[in-house]
Amino acid sequence: MPSKTIDLGVRLHHLDEGAGDQTFVLVHGLGGSHLNWSPLIEPLAKRGRVLVPDLGGFGRTPPSPDGSSVDANLALLARFVRAVAPDRRVVLVGNSMGGYLSLRMAAEHASLVRALVLVDPAAPLPFGGRIDPTVAAMFASYMVPGMAQRLMRRRAAQVGADGMVRDMLKMCTVDIARIDPAVIEAHVALARERASMPWAIDAFLEAARSVVVAVTRRGAYHDAVDAVRAPTLLVHGARDRLVSVDAARALAKRRADWRYVEHHDLGHVPQLEAPGWLLGEMEPWLDALPAR
Known about the structure:
By secondary structure, the chain is of the alpha/beta class. It has a single domain (3-287), classed as 3-Layer(aba) Sandwich (Rossmann fold), CATH 3.40.50.1820. Helices cover 48% and strands 17% of the residues. It has helices spanning 38-45, 70-84, 97-108, 133-142, 147-172, 181-194, 200-216, 218-227, 245-254, 270-273, 275-287, and strands at 3-7, 11-17, 23-27, 49-53, 90-96, 113-121, 232-237, 259-263. Strand 7 (232-237), helix 9 (245-254) and strand 8 (259-263) form a beta-alpha-beta unit. Helix 2 (70-84) packs across helix 3 and helix 3 crosses helix 8 (218-227). The longest helix is centred in the middle third of the chain and has 26 residues, at 147-172. The protein starts with a strand and ends in a 5-residue tail after the last helix.
């Protein structure tokens, strides 16, 4: 697939596939990259142009001068959309942290966004909601400067790129065997590349801490949700360990005008674990969107 870079104050790496009147921008999550969307790119490219950026500090894109926090990456994402699709509104499709960024984009840069697809977006856990203890411990470790870097470097040395990728995908899925082995191997190859990037761990941790802060600021988060005017499809795996389905249900209740779809046996990354199912939900919804 065509791989490009664009100078936006940092050399942002992205994929650019397809053409047509409709433009999709696919936004990955924490620790992810353009590869997180591999199964969806070719099918969506039959409908229009598909742009898949590596956010600042992820994939092959270095952190921007402002860092790799969600605020820094929101500004970078807005610059990217304005630069690559200056004459049209885009369909934003975001997963996890990328879902939160896409939500913020639709709220704060409404003129850029035609429609919004949120796939297991990072969201506040409602009072009384369930949280996975392993995930809670993992994110708690990320919040401790110094210790977090040491733990991540030690784990990488113990299990290597292959182990790091498989550990994360196991946490993000119900069954890692559902993911195309070629997609897993591509993730491993990129992880090996990132092992030589001196900023990779610090960029990940900066972003992780900023996501935690963002989802704990319920008032600001809900203000963004309330401000979205673009048609929105919210999709969630009921067995998501990283973002509890309770959080998605609370969002769906708050925005009854959004279409909400839940799969009983999927985890955090439906686009990798069940891309056919996700496309089956997205495509009829896209077909029913109001004329541009």
